[in-house]
Amino acid sequence: MSNPPPPPPPRDAFALLMCHPSNTKKKLQSSFPDPKTPTEDTLKVEAVNEDVPHAKKPKTLTVEVAKEVEKEVMDEKIALLVKKGLEFKPKSAAFWKDGESIPFVFLARAFDLASQNSSRIVIIDILCNVFRTVIATTPSDLVSFIYLSVGKIYPPYDGIELGIGDTTIIKSLSEAYGKSVVEVRKELKTVGDLGLVAKASRSSQSTVSKPAPLTVAKVLDAFRTLAKFSGQLSQERKNKCVKALLVAASDCEPQYIIRILQSKMRIGFSEQTVLAALGQAVAYSESPLAPPIEEAVKIINHVYSVHPNYDSIVSALLTDGVLKLPDTCPFVLGVPISPMLAKPTKGVSEILKQFQNRDLTCEYKYDGERAQIHYFGDGSVQIFSRNSVRNTEKFPDVIQSVQR
C-alpha cells in the first residue's frame, strides 16, 4: 500500500485572499449581509420590540415622551395653587430643589392660571401660594417674583423704565421665531394680543438645541439691563436682549415676557392684589408666630405707602418678620410716600350720604400739579410727583424757593 500524499503547505490569509480575490469577496459579502436589508433575525427582533413595552425606542420619541410627562407633572403642581390656606403645602407645588433658581415658567403658568379666574379671592389665593412656595424653597427669589408680578423692574422713584416700543418687540419676535414682520403684524391684527402671538409662534417652532431654561431672577436681570441701554445703538441692543429671552422661552413664557415688556399684563389683578397676597403668604409662612392674616396685610399695605421699595420690604420681611416691618422700613428722605388720593363722586348729595349727616371739612381743589418735596440736611432738594416719580429738574424755581 502506498503512503498518502503529504498535506499541502499552510498558506497565510493574505495568500488565500490573493488566490481567488473575487470569490473571496463574494463569500465575505454573503457572510455579512447588507445592513440596509432586513434579515429574518432582524425582523424577529423588531417584532419582539413592538410587543415589549420597555424596548428601546428611537431617541426622538423618548424625548417627546419625557416632555409630555414633564408637562403633566407641572400641570398637576400648578393646579395645587388654587388651594386655600393651610390646605396648601408650599413645597408640593415646587418642581425644583430647595435653593435653586426658580424657573420663570412657574410664574408664567401661575399668571396663566390667575387669568382664567375672575374672582379676586381666587387670584389672591393663587398669588399667595406662589409666594409661599418661593419662601419655602428659594426665598432669595421672592423680590424678583414681586417685581415681575406688578410689572415693574425698579421702584417708581428711580425713574428707570423698560422704554421699549411695540416696533422693537415685533422685530425681536419675528427674528426669534423665523417670521416676517408682516406675518407678525397680521397675526396681531387677528388676535389682538402680541403676547398670544408670541406664545403661538413659539409652540409651532422646533429648535435644534434647547437653551438653558429661563429663571425668574434671570428674566428680571435681563429687563433691568435692557432698561439701561442708551445711545445710538440702544434699540438694536434691546432687540438682541428681547430676542435672546424669546429664543430661550418655552410653554407660555413668551406670552408673559411680551406682556411685561408692554406693561399690559391682562391678568386681572393690581398692585394692591399683590400686596394682599404677600401679606397672607408671610402670615402663613411665619405661623404660628405670625399675626392674623388681616393684620399682616394691613401692615404691609401701610409700610408700602410710606416706603415703596420692594427690595427693602422683602429683605426686612425675610429677616425680621412682618410685625417688625414698620420699624425696619420706616419713612426715609429720598423715598417718597404714597399720597392720599381723593375718590371722585357724582355730586354733593352722594358725599352727604356717605358721611351720614356727620360733620365734615371740605377744601377747594386747585388746578396744578401735586409735588412732594424732600429737603435734606445738606440743603439739597428732591421733588416727586403724585405717582412717586422723581422730577426735581422740572421745578428749578421751586428748588430755589425751598433753599432760601
List the helices and strands and how they pair.
Layout lengths: L12 H7 L1 H11 L8 H12 L7 H21 L24 H12 L4 H18 L4 H8 L16 H11 L4 H11 L2 H10 L12 H12 L6 H15 L4 H10 L8 H15 L7 H14 L3 H11 L4 H4 L19 H8 L16 E4 L5 E4 L11 H8 L1
Antiparallel strand pairs: 1-2
Helix pairs in contact: 5-6, 6-14, 7-16, 8-9, 8-12, 10-13, 11-12, 14-15
Family: Belongs to the ATP-dependent DNA ligase family.
InterPro entries: ATP-dep_DNA_ligase (IPR050191), DNA_ligase_ATP-dep_cent (IPR012310), DNA_ligase_ATP-dep_CS (IPR016059), DNA_ligase_ATP-dep_N (IPR012308), DNA_ligase_N_sf (IPR036599)
Protein name: DNA ligase
Question: Summed up, what is this model?
Answer:
The chain has 404 residues and is mainly alpha-helical. It has 19 helices and 2 strands.
Relevant terms:
404 residues; mainly alpha; two-stranded antiparallel ribbon; 19 helices; 2% strand; globular; ligase; ATP-dep_DNA_ligase; cell division; DNA recombination
Descriptive account of the structure:
By secondary structure, this protein is mainly α. It contains 19 helices and two strands. It has helices at residues 13-19, 21-31, 40-51, 59-79, 104-115, 120-137, 142-149, 166-176, 181-191, 194-203, 216-227, 234-248, 253-262, 271-285, 293-306, 310-320, 325-328, 348-355, 396-403, and strands at residues 372-375, 381-384. A two-stranded antiparallel ribbon has the order 1-2. Strand 1 and strand 2 (381-384) form a beta hairpin.
